[in-house]
Amino acid sequence: MKLALFDCDGTLVDSAGLIHETMRRTFEKFGKPEPRFEDTKAIIGLSLDIAIARMQGRPHVEQQDIDMTAHYKSLFTVVRQDLDYREPLFAGIREMIDAISGREDLLIGAVTGKSRRGLKLVMKTHGFDQHFVVTRTADDCPSKPHPAMVTECCDETGMNARDAVVIGDAVYDMQMAKAAGAKAIGVAWGYASVDELIANGADAIAYHPNEILRHFS
């Protein structure tokens, strides 16, 4: 039995445009310089307050970061509706999830820096609710790369971390997997480079979602 733990943003769905536009409006509201798209992509995967602090060059969260986080959350749904963003699935993701979801030797979970509300929206939009048996979000655990998301999913499903595989596009996903004692598969279609993923502990790289299937054969 294996436990496949998928990151969401940059791994299952292409949400960079939505995240960046919401971040851009938030920084504008607080009189901050407009962030570059590259700066936004670099923090995707972190919990939101930590991400906002990092984008301003701070290692620790301050009160203004908390205030900006609250504003970002209040804007997110509005931006999604205004610009008709739907956080589309990357090509091949639906087929890959469908292919592994019926297997008796594999459980599927999600470990994400999204809020629980945000993850539920993605799952509902794409009809994935019934496939994911365990989830952990930024509302439940410390930010990646802390291993809690992985270890709590393992505890809930009765799995050992050595039988868990984290699939993600960010260096934080790779670091989290290694910290928890799990395997890590980096995906090449997300927001970090392949070299960055390998340098941060990826045991393998998938260049297309159908390549993930090989690791559970």
TrEMBL record:
Entry keyword set: Hydrolase
Domain of life of the source: Bacteria
Keyword Chloroplast attached: no
Keyword match Hydrolase: yes
SUPFAM superfamilies in the record: HAD-like
UniProt GO molecular function: hydrolase activity
InterPro entries noted in UniProt: HAD-like_hydrolase_sf (IPR050155), HAD-like_sf (IPR036412), HAD-SF_hydro_IA (IPR006439), HAD_2 (IPR041492), HAD_sf (IPR023214), PGP-like_dom2 (IPR023198)
One Pfam family linked to the record: HAD_2
UniProt-recorded name of the protein: HAD-IA family hydrolase
Organism: Rhizobium croatiense
UniProt lineage: Bacteria, Pseudomonadati, Pseudomonadota, Alphaproteobacteria, Hyphomicrobiales
